[in-house]
Amino acid sequence: MSLSSQAAAAAGPSVGPAPQNVVIVDDSAVARAVLARVINACPGFQVTGAVPTAAQALRFLAANRADFILLDIQMPGVDGITALPDLAAAAPHAKIIVVSSMVAAGVQALALGAADTLTKPAPGEVSAPFAKALTDSLLRLSTAAGASAAISIDAPTLPVRAATAGRPSPRPGGDEFDLVGIGASTGGIHALSGLLREIPGSFRLPILVTQHLPASFMPYFAAQLAVLAGRPCDVATDRLRIRPGRLIVAPGDAHMTCMALPDGGAAIKLSHEPAANGCLPSVDPMLASIAQVFGTRALAVVLSGMGRDGAEGARRVHEAGGCVVVQDQSSSAVWGMPGSVAAQGIADAILPPDAIGRLAAARRRP
Question: Which residues pair with 257 in a beta bridge?
Answer without folding.
Answer: 269
